[in-house]
Amino acid sequence: MKIFNAEQIRRADKVTIENQHISSLQLMERAGYRLFRKLHENYIPLKGKVWVFCGMGNNGGDGLVIARHLYEAKQEVVVVLVNFSDRRSEDMQANLDRVAALDIAITEFRETSSFPEIIADDLVIDAVFGIGLSRRPAAWVERLILNINTCPARVVAVDLPSGMMMDGIEGETAAVIKADHTYTFQTPKLPLLLPGSGKYSRNWSIIAIDQDPDFLASEPTFFYYTDEKEMVKLLEERPRFSHKGSYGHAFICGGSYGKVGAALMCAEAALTAGSGLVSALVPRCGYQVLQTSVPEVMCVPTSDEDLITGIQPEFTPDTVALGPGMGKDEQTFRAVMEFLNTYHGYLVLDADGLNILAEHPEMWDALPGQTVITPHPGEFKRLVGAWKDDNECLEMAMQLAKRRNVIVVLKGAYTLVTDGDGVYFNSTGNPGMATGGSGDVLTGIIASLLGQDYAPLEATRLGVFLHGLSADIAIRDTSVWALKATDIIDYLGDAFLFLQSLKR
Ligand SMILES: NC(=O)C1=CN([C@@H]2O[C@H](COP(=O)(O)OP(=O)(O)OC[C@H]3O[C@@H](n4cnc5c(N)ncnc54)[C@H](O)[C@@H]3O)[C@@H](O)[C@H]2O)[C@@H](O)CC1
Ligand SMILES: [K+]
């Protein structure tokens, strides 16, 4: 699914209005009504009142449409007009006229107004600013936002939480609505996906407003949201006459004394993600545990008891995962460099593999083209240095991918994948995954898919998606608190089954 900027969304609205022969007021009615339907489904009946805070632009216009429909559905509503400007948008004014003709309480909120008494049984609809916010609001409007944030009622934001700008948040001190849920129109909005701004909305979902399909399909963008529809199309069936040679021989190199589990989870994840064969190279201390806990995986022990000191497999791997639990010893670094001098196939570099890379930048030139690197923000910082905000971080990820011809997977709530030409935010996953070992599992899944001949970008997007999906299914049984990395492996089959069920 594409992600657009404010200017593109405005053009999408304009084209929609022209092609569907409707007025902008009708499009606003469609947007507001559909959002009202969702509200009705999820929040109504409500013990208390609904407070609809409306700005002077079209976001406020949406709020007024919602208020009218709530009133018609017999819900007690109070409209609070936040008078931050003398200029009202035409469609907002038209909707205000319609609301004023009904028996709906309307109050005006100005600089000197005091905040109304809102109780826990009430619901606040934030329709103050949407995608039109272009600078920080006046101090009294920011105070209002902070008051809403401290009131006990639940808060639902229309399109975007007010105070959040499409290109991020201005400074740490900016006031932004903390929304329990944001209903955003037609396409995901970038600031909802980035950590600095996204944290303001606990959850969000899309309200389709039937924008012009040709525009949505043809308008170019760098940013995408990976959804299940696309992933279903990517997932390959396994033909009846295939054999283990058809699905690649994955080679996992990792582990060191005390951290053999990382390599083990990575290997088991590769196996469960469908590799034809999996071999794991671990230091001798890991031999026994690997052979007993995952008998399907072949073990290639190195000569040293505690460390990887040489990587010389007696077969040609189709895909390699390098790094989990490997440590950063100088001998391990030399073994990695020696291996990379002759290996030119698919590679996923993670964890200590990335830490070694940060300490030995000469390793960049030895990486095969389209190597997948999977840093978390701490590892990414060690690779590229600090960034001032999310947008700069995004830019740095894209530049790194382009400059080094790698695929960057920057792990987070909406893990992003970039090849330098596009940025793909993942839609699956949950906070239970913030636990040791879940990265090792991801590395194994991506390496496995690369070996099954998915193109590198596709293998990576599908791997990230399945990893999150598996964890989402797992927490139905385990809860987010108790989720372990090995659960992600255990539920991977359910993730495949879910995607397969959508194929039919
Ligand atoms: N254009 C359309 O046809 C549709 C628009 N929709 C709604 O319209 C919203 C966008 O509406 P607008 O473009 O009117 O903008 P907003 O309603 O988001 O913002 C209000 C206006 O405030 C002004 N402004 C920006 N920063 C300000 C500041 N710091 N202090 C005071 N004023 C400031 C801007 O001129 C902006 O137009 C969307 O988020 C969505 O909710 C929906 O109704 C769907 C259809
Ligand atoms: K809003």
Q: How many discrete domains? A: 2
Taking all residues together, what is the mean pLDDT? 96
- CATH topological fold name of the largest domain: UDP-N-acetylmuramoyl-L-alanine:D-glutamate ligase
- What does the largest sheet look like? 11 strands, mixed
Query: End-to-end span in angstroms?
Result: 21 Å
C-alpha Rg (nearest Å):
26 Å
Strand content: 15-25%
Number of helices: 19
Give the helix/strand class.
alpha/beta
**What top-tier CATH class of the largest domain fits best?**
Alpha Beta
CATH architecture classification name of the largest domain: 3-Layer(aba) Sandwich
Binding site for (6S)-NADPHX: 58-62, 159, 262, 325, 376, 440
Protein name: Bifunctional NAD(P)H-hydrate repair enzyme
Organism: Robertkochia marina
Cofactor: Mg(2+); K(+)
What would you note in describing this structure?
This protein has 504 residues and is an alpha/beta fold. 42% of the residues lie in helices and 16% in strands. It is built from 19 helices and 18 strands. The protein has helices spanning 6-19, 24-43, 58-72, 90-100, 139-150, 190-193, 195-198, 213-218, 228-234, 260-272, 287-293, 330-342, 352-359, 377-384, 390-404, 438-451, 456-478, 485-490, 492-503, and strands at 2-3, 50-54, 77-82, 105-109, 123-127, 154-158, 181-185, 204-207, 223-226, 249-253, 277-282, 298-301, 319-322, 346-349, 371-373, 406-410, 416-418, 423-426. The strands form two sheets. Strands 1-9-18-17-16-15-14-13-10-11-12 form an eleven-stranded mixed β-sheet, with helices on both faces. Strand 17 (416-418) and strand 18 (423-426) form a beta hairpin. The longest helix is centred in the last third of the chain and has 23 residues, at 456-478. The radius of gyration is 26 Å and the shape is elongated.
